[in-house]
Amino acid sequence: MGEKPETPIRFGIIGCANIARKVARAINLAPCSVLYAIGSRSIEKAKQFASDNGVRESVKIYGSYDQVLDDPFVDAVYMPLPTSLHLHWAVMAARRKKHVLIEKPTALDVTELEQILEACESNGVQFMDGSMWLHHPRTVKMKETLFDSKLLGDVNYIYSTSTTSVSPEFLENDIRVKADMDALGALGDIGWYCLGAILWAKNYQLPTLVTALPDVSKNSNGVILSCSASIQYGEPAETVGIIHCSFFSSTSMDLTITGSGGSLNLRDFIIPYQESSASFEFTVGAKLAQLHIGWNVKPQKVVVDSELPQEALMVQEFAGLVHDIRTSASHPDPKWPDISRKTQMLLDAVKKSVDFGCKPVYF
Prior knowledge:
- By secondary structure, the chain is of the alpha/beta class.
- Strand 1 (9-14), helix 1 (19-29) and strand 2 (33-39) form a beta-alpha-beta unit.
- The protein contains eleven helices and 16 strands.
- Strands 7, 8, 9, 10, 11, 12, 13, 14, 15 and 16 form a ten-stranded mixed beta sheet that branches.
């Protein structure tokens, strides 16, 4: 990219989790933002993060989160903190008039998220969660090609997975398996994407009922390590979604959407196989060939190029909204808080069904 604008959006990062490395790079790749400050619980950890990631010497290094929020030159903060800390620090950031880009899951439950969103709204700051795939041009192209044109017909089945095979050390020590840090476990960490995909495919309509399936696996602290759920729209069901998230299976990021007229398939919907382009396949009017020896059509493949990685596009979108608020006194865009709220509501319903022995939870 070319030179940064004279007044780019200045980001502070609070928390040096591994995902912060990716977003720190994205902040500097995006054309309208700059990494201005890094804060951790200790100055040593913040310095180590800066050293490991080649951060410019001009970036401020702080030994506490408060120092980042108190810096008058920080416009927005990115928060890759444990979920249990989101409520406190997101509210604190909003009260200091810092715009909030926060990692998913957004909160431990929708009650906490509502407090965060109220703080952002009352202080006039933008809120967005870190669902990067929503900002990829492939996602935009899929919506334009298949949904806006009704090419698939009425959506009646959605299938989504997010799985990864973790190490024994992860299962023992990672914060995502600690009840006091990230109590939502695999459901919150990677299931968030599956639930978001269901909602995206249904244009963010909330379902009728949610039922966790009886394949739930938890650790000794009660944290979910693997689970599946059925998500039903209408009674009788007009649309059924099935999600599966797990820390025990090989990496998968599948999304299949089937309608009355066709189907969409992709295998890398959360993180594309490569940064510079991504693809999807769709089939319209498919039938079995005569004598059932094959299909009458083959899937059509669409390749979508991307000038920036999807995380940089997310930062660009967020920074653009912040810029508009700063320069034209516009209001924060309600689209992104609404997406987060509905995703959190759906996640809460799955968790409730799990907690009550996989009983149906009605909306």
